[in-house]
Amino acid sequence: MSQATATIAGRIDVAVAPSEREIEQWVVGRVDALLEEEGAVTNAQKPLAAYGLDSVDTAGLLSDLEDWLGVALPTELVWEWVSPRELATRVAAHLHGE
Questions:
Q1: Predicted TM-score (pTM) of this structure
Q2: Domain 7-95 homologous superfamily, CATH
Q3: Burial label, 6 (beta-carbon count in 10 A; 0-12, 13-18, 19+)
């Protein structure tokens, strides 16, 4: 069973949940893909909006992240000027029930 599909009661099993760093790497890779440019994200602390992503893009990013993890995530995780690193931190905290 993959990390992204092992769930308990609709929540990913924290024993196999991706780490914050793995989530950040996934987010960076997905943003690169959205921008159609490998290496486009040069600073994981730079807000997603600074890379040209709008609310539609970030909603799609969150949906893709939910698909990867196999769990529903609250939309407020991508509100404001969230960066790939901050998004990874918020998602990891959510997965661990914090």
A1: 0.82
A2: ACP-like (1.10.1200.10)
A3: middle
